[in-house]
Design brief:
With 55 residues, the protein is mostly helical. The chain has one domain. It has helices spanning 2-23, 25-53. Helix 1 (2-23) runs antiparallel to helix 2. The radius of gyration is 14 Å and the shape is elongated. The mean pLDDT is 94.
């Protein structure tokens, strides 16, 4: 499941960069926010999985 969050983070980052080039940052900032959120979710899920497996 955590790799889906990583893929979503990369996809949103690519879409954000593309949208910034074409339309400007005012339109595309939400892609960057979603990318950051997905990256945080990836890191939290990974930390939790590693913590649970370490018992």
């Amino acid at each position: 499941m955590e790799y889906i969050w990583a893929a979503l983070a990369v996809l949103c980052l690519i879409l954000g960069i593309h949208s910034s080039i074409k339309l400007g940052f005012g339109v595309s900032y939400m892609y960057f926010a979603l990318s950051a959120l997905a990256l945080i979710m990836f890191l939290v899920r990974r930390w939790k999985r590693l913590k649970d497996n370490g018992r």
